[in-house]
Amino acid sequence: MNDKMSQKNSRPLSLRVPEPSGRPGDAPDFSHLTMDPAGAVDRPEVSTAPYEMRDHAFRLIRVLDEDGNAVGPWNPRLDPETLRRGLKAMILTRAFDDRMHRAHRQGKTSFYMKCTGEEAIAVAQGMILSREDMGFPTYRQQGLLIARGYPLTAMMNQIYSNAEDPIKGRQLPIMYSAKDYGFFTISGNLGTQVPQAVGWAMASAYKGDDKIAISWIGDGATAEGDFHNALTFASVYRAPVILNIVNNQWAISSFQGIAGGLETTFASKAIGYGLPALRVDGNDFLAVWAATQWAEERARSNLGATVIELFTYRGAPHSTSDDPSRYRPGDEHEKWPLGDPIERLRQHLTLIGEWDDERHTAALKEAVEQVRAAGKESEAIGTLGQSRPSVKTMFEEVYATEDWRLVEQRREVGV
């Protein structure tokens, strides 16, 4: 045997397991984060080649500064009414979340997932894109439906799986489906949204249509093969799609470093596929709007896909089955350096004279009353186990033409 081959390592090898900056009992520490000041990142032309804007995958696009001013080249210069609509939709989304979380604690539903701290993402993007464009969301984009005026009662009926459930008990709670609102049926499998969105966008382009697609996944799902397969297709076929990575720092119990977030940014994963990437302050309504608008224009100009990393923080538990106090500092959300999206937009509107404490109090009250009214209507139909879709719906909408086996099974059940 070759002497060199027989030599052992000078020291034993060890495996690195990434650890977050804080665990329960520790003080929150965000000193490792590097973030550009508001207004510091340049806004490239939509037609810019991905190679020429690689640094945008490592910068952080911000519009709102610490005082609430909208600054820099990414300022979308939205009119006050649009800003107020966005703020009210975020407030309503949070009020809806709070009521449904309580409903779970009262035994009225088996499951719920809040989007506390992430409301600006779904609300802003839901307002920008048309209902005719197709969104492929995960389970934390309820703001899409709420911003577009989808009935709160219908959302609750789906959560309760009652007799008026729009999808007839075929999905877990919070896995909505609303084609007329540009909301593709939610899949609980991680990462599936990306290839679905890319395929839909490719079909739109193949038909010569003018509709684009948009998808959302979490930071952890970027480790799934589906994500990387989809980026290949999006790049090769120049699919008209916006691919969002919602980096909210935590999966159900593992932090974003487990998915590679300590090695590089999630936006930078686009570089290897020849796609443009933007990294955005996800708690800044104006920055989310501006970046999405840039990516939308690129897609509609037949220039292809854009990857957007939305840098935010999951303030609430992953779901009602999760207890974040077991794996992260208890007050970490309150110390998040990018603040709260509702408070930041409120501060901006107040600064420009288009909002005040009285209007904010009224908006909070209106949202709670709107959710309460929807809750009474939905709960009158029934909560979990009190009412359910008819058994016969199990056999409907399975095949375009009813299969003989379904006929036989319906006969056996007697419906």
TrEMBL record:
Residues 12-50 form the 2-oxoisovalerate dehydrogenase E1 alpha subunit N-terminal domain. Its cofactor is thiamine diphosphate. The keyword Aminoacyl-tRNA synthetase does not apply. Keywords: Oxidoreductase, Thiamine pyrophosphate. It holds the Pfam family OxoDH_E1alpha_N. Coiled coil: none annotated. It is an enzyme of class 1 (oxidoreductase). Residues 88-381 form the Dehydrogenase E1 component domain. GO terms for biological process: branched-chain amino acid catabolic process. It catalyses: N(6)-[(R)-lipoyl]-L-lysyl-[protein] + 3-methyl-2-oxobutanoate + H(+) = N(6)-[(R)-S(8)-2-methylpropanoyldihydrolipoyl]-L-lysyl-[protein] + CO2. Residues 1-34 are annotated as: Disordered. One of its GO terms (molecular function) is branched-chain 2-oxo acid dehydrogenase activity. The keyword Cell membrane does not apply. CDD domains: TPP_E1_PDC_ADC_BCADC (cd02000). Its EC number is 1.2.4.4. Belongs to the BCKDHA family. The branched-chain alpha-keto dehydrogenase complex catalyzes the overall conversion of alpha-keto acids to acyl-CoA and CO(2). It contains multiple copies of three enzymatic components: branched-chain alpha-keto acid decarboxylase (E1), lipoamide acyltransferase (E2) and lipoamide dehydrogenase (E3). This is 2-oxoisovalerate dehydrogenase subunit alpha. It comes from Brevundimonas aurantiaca.
